[in-house]
Prior knowledge:
Layout: E1 3-9, E2 14-18, E3 23-27, H1 48-62, E4 70-76, H2 82-93, E5 100-105, E6 116-122, E7 126-133, E8 136-144, H3 150-156, E9 171-174, E10 188-190, H4 192-200
Parallel strand pairs: 1-4, 4-5, 6-9, 9-10
Antiparallel strand pairs: 1-2, 2-3, 6-7, 7-8
Amino acid sequence: MARCIPVIITNTNILVFDREAEEYKSFSLPGVTTQPNIPFYHAFAKKIAESQHYFKEFIKSVYSGKSSKNILAIIVPDDTSALESIFINEFFLNCGACKAVAQMTMGQSLSKDINAYISVSKSSRNIVLQYIKNNEVKSSRYYDCNDYDAEQIKSDSQRLHIDIEYEKTPIFVNNFNLNMDDFFDMGEVITPKVFLDNISRIDVEKI
């Protein structure tokens, strides 16, 4: 039977959920240097074979058995571009640690019970607003995390999609990176513990 492994790409590393130990374990590539406003995993492209080898060995150290049975449920930052999304999928698919991958944004994983909501988060590059409905990102807006007006973002959240203008929509503030103090009054704050608990119970069929 296929084994679903939750994987979170954070601002600084990759977290893999160890189901047996019921805890997240961190993977980072030795010797990788990061640059401002550029996600750390971009450096993997410069050492692609080495990076994939180390990640495969890391997965083998956490999960015994055939890696060909694994499905990686990958959670990415909300501002991940289409090209970055393709690179992430190809990186994991071709590293030998899984037979398939499924990908969703952090915003899409904030609630399992509410079908329509707004998420707000901060990556290493941007503040991101997303309107999520039935697990799909219907609309999004980005702001430079080094130059933004919190009040403007709060106002924009109410005009993110036409659906929002005619009905009250819950807002979730993703505080996974502990950097959302400016937005605590917007809605329900999702703490790191709550976020990680949600991901540990991820259902690949919904991604």
